[in-house]
Amino acid sequence: MKTLGLIGYPLSHSFSPEYFTKKFEKLGITGMEYKLFPLKTIKELPYLLEKEPNLIGFNVTIPYKKEILSYLDQIDTEAKAIGAVNTVTIKKNQLKGYNTDVYGFECTLDKLPTQPKSAIIFGNGGAAEAVKYALKKRNISYKIISRRSETYNYDWLSEERISSNKLLINTTPIGMYPNIESKLPIPEKGITPEHSMIDLIYNPEVTSFMQMGIDKGAFAINGQLMLEKQADKAWQIFNF
What we know:
By secondary structure, this protein is α/β, with parallel strands linked by helices. The protein has two domains: 2-99, Rossmann fold (3-Layer(aba) Sandwich), CATH 3.40.50; 103-226, NAD(P)-binding Rossmann-like Domain (Rossmann fold, 3-Layer(aba) Sandwich), CATH 3.40.50. The protein contains eight helices and eleven strands. The strands form two sheets. The protein has a six-stranded mixed sheet. Strands 8-7-9-10-11 form a five-stranded parallel sheet, with helices on both faces. Helix 4 packs antiparallel against helix 8. The protein is elongated and about 55 Å long.
């Protein structure tokens, strides 16, 4: 039995097992399984690899998309430029990292009613790296809002600054199930019908972040499409 899996923490209500299990069934692939590996720290990875000798690859989610880099033997050129990895193959005990989040996010950008000139990204973790890379490719300027930043933190935000950046992107887990009532501290009055709002969260289907935009007549989309498209690309990479 060969194994694919997902590392991250926490991993409740993950999309990946159902997606890959359906792939196995649809393509008539036997002798394959997809497992969840909730690691409380990335330092548990070597133990996991030792414990799971049939593991041939795994996906990486919050909060290890950056931390995984130091555990890899090889990194794909684009993933290295992005600075984050969400897909890892294991061949001859060599771990190679890739990033399929950029592809998934670009598919989401293609759904926007108009291409904005500037964006505000909330959060600066591994998922944000793929978002930044995709925006650069499309010449969309951006500011990153992070609680840890001395310059661009939530105190920097104002109605005017929200209003003048027509693309707002949430890369944080705020509002994710089960904490669906939690909200980013955004000056909502700055949101207009000309805005587009992307939340990388896909559970719940309509997040508190998206609802802020919907209430103002803005376009809002969750992370489901990005999730599906990055998984499609990861499947091609695993290509066993």
